[in-house]
Design brief:
This protein is an alpha/beta fold. It has 13 helices and 17 strands. A seven-stranded mixed sheet has the order 6-5-4-7-8-11-10. Strands 14-13-12-15-16-17 form a six-stranded mixed sheet. It has a four-stranded antiparallel sheet with strand order 1-2-3-9. β5, α4 and β6 form a beta-alpha-beta unit. α5 packs parallel to α6. It binds S-adenosylmethionine, thymidine-5'-phosphate and zinc ion. InterPro entries: Methyltransf_Zn-bd_dom_put, Methyltransf_Zn-bd_dom_put_sf, MeTrfase_14, SAM-dependent_MTases_sf. One of its GO terms (molecular function) is methyltransferase activity.
């Protein structure tokens, strides 16, 4: 019986996405050989309820010098993190010698406003090029994997932190026990650990199965996070649900007894119970919806190809690796994917080998249909690409079901 990565309990598999590549490993078109594949499958722990991948990909295959995701690419996300930074500056970072550490600080999208305010900060992120970008903006950053030993090195060099923040990163880290031991060592007695990640509740509600890929090792709920924190003398004291990236929850964790849990925690736990988020049957039903979406998307794209329509995709997201490889999409069904990230352009998508072009290719000329892989940025993208629909173009979305707009 497979074991839970966090508590050792029995893990039950609920959906198998088959053979998948590394979601962010965009390839040079003439160097396709030797591509790495693994089996992407998701399961739930019967003891602590944590939903997680059945197989772990070695971390340095995913996060390295050439990791191509730059957080500052989205205007909406820049605003979201600026707001987050201002909140910390106004609340938790007002005492003497305030200090904030960010795990997975990437290109410095959140720490920028902290650095500009002259407050002591440190980013920790293992990916070389993105951390270099952060340093070039004046943000203090260590290029390293955060884990217990790294946390102890930070304490020795910099002292303890008032706030440890992480966005879209803690769910990427299979070795959560080491993270929580590190957090417990690094926090000041009344410090807080705040992290936000895609929420299982939204993934199930929207059938957004493409949130499941190599880097998203865990799909959190408040219940699973609270169980985890308690094993390390920590307590879940607040939760906040918001809409970015298709639905996320921000969890606030403090030392047990240091802060009174807010009513929002019990409220979300009750809602999760009512929705059966810790029940296998809920995830099995989700799996049936995934299979239906896969079948509908393949049917639609095949029909459009047979009718001679041009279909391109928009946003070479990590998420799209799961969709493309589950559905067997290739350049015969999707001509190219456009994306603003220079590090992805002129490469091909992992596993599915669809060419990636810059955003200018989108309007040269407009296709008949655009498959919106970056559906989590739909408002931002539809607003700036209004001309596409004025030209008769249609967007294809596949969550919560396959439809065009
Ligand atoms: N926080 C940014 C955001 O929300 O846009 C970046 C998110 S990005 C999807 C995940 C980041 O986590 C990457 O920059 C990756 O290098 C970093 N990462 C992965 N494992 C890590 C670890 N053990 N410690 C610190 N950062 C890690
Ligand atoms: P994400 O869903 O992981 O944030 O990735 C979004 C991808 O979409 C990333 O490669 C950048 C790209 N993108 C565009 O090409 N145009 C846009 O307007 C936005 C917001 C993102
Ligand atoms: Zn468990």
């Amino acid at each position: 019986m497979p074991e839970c990565r966090t508590c050792g309990g029995a893990l039950t598999e609920v959906y198998d996405f088959g053979r998948q590549p590394l979601s962010d490993a965009f390839l040079e078109p003439d160097k396709l050989e030797g591509e790495f594949f693994y089996r992407l499958a998701v399961g739930m722990c019967g003891a602590c309820t944590m939903v997680q991948l059945m197989e772990e990909v070695p971390r340095d295959k995913m996060f390295h010098e050439d990791y191509p995701y730059y957080s500052s690419g989205s205007e909406v996300m820049r605003k979201h993190f600026e707001h987050t930074a201002r909140d910390f500056l106004d609340t938790e970072l007002t005492g003497p010698d305030p200090f904030i550490v960010e795990i997975g600080s990437n290109d410095g999208v959140m720490l920028k406003a902290i650095a500009d305010a002259g407050v002591k900060h440190l980013g920790v992120d293992p990916s070389g090029a993105v951390t270099e970008r952060a340093r070039s903006k004046g943000i203090r950053t260590r290029t390293a994997f955060f884990e217990e030993s790294e946390a102890l090195a930070v304490v020795a060099a910099e002292g303890n932190a008032d706030v440890i923040f992480a966005a879209n990163t803690i769910c990427h880290i299979p070795y959560l026990d080491s993270i929580f031991r590190g957090v417990a060592a690094l926090l000041k007695p009344n410090g807080i650990f705040v992290f936000e990640d895609p929420y299982l509740g939204d993934i199930v509600e929207r059938a957004s199965f493409d949130q499941i890929y190599d880097e998203h090792f865990y799909l959190f709920t408040a219940r699973a996070v609270r169980n985890m924190a308690r094993r390390f003398g920590l307590e879940l004291v607040d939760v906040e649900h918001f809409g970015v990236h298709g639905g996320e929850v921000r969890y606030t964790i403090a030392r047990q007894g240091a802060r009174e849990p807010k009513p929002a925690v019990e409220e979300l736990l009750a809602e999760e119970d009512a929705r059966g988020l810790a029940q296998l049957s809920t995830l099995e039903e989700f799996g049936l919806r995934v299979t239906a979406i896969k079948d509908d998307l393949v049917t639609l794209l095949t029909k459009l190809r047979d009718e001679g329509k041009r279909v391109v995709a928009y946003g070479a997201t990590a998420k799209s690796a799961t969709v493309a490889n589950l559905c067997g999409l290739g350049p015969d069904l999707v001509e190219f994917v456009c994306d603003i990230t220079p590090q992805k352009q002129n490469r091909v998508t992992p596993g599915s080998h669809i060419p990636v072009r810059g955003p200018e290719a989108f309007r040269d000329p407009y296709p008949d249909y655009a498959l919106l892989f970056a559906w989590n940025h739909a408002d931002e993208i539809l607003a700036k690409e209004q001309e596409f629909r004025r030209n008769g173009g249609k967007w294809i979305l596949y969550v919560p079901d396959v439809h065009t707009v």
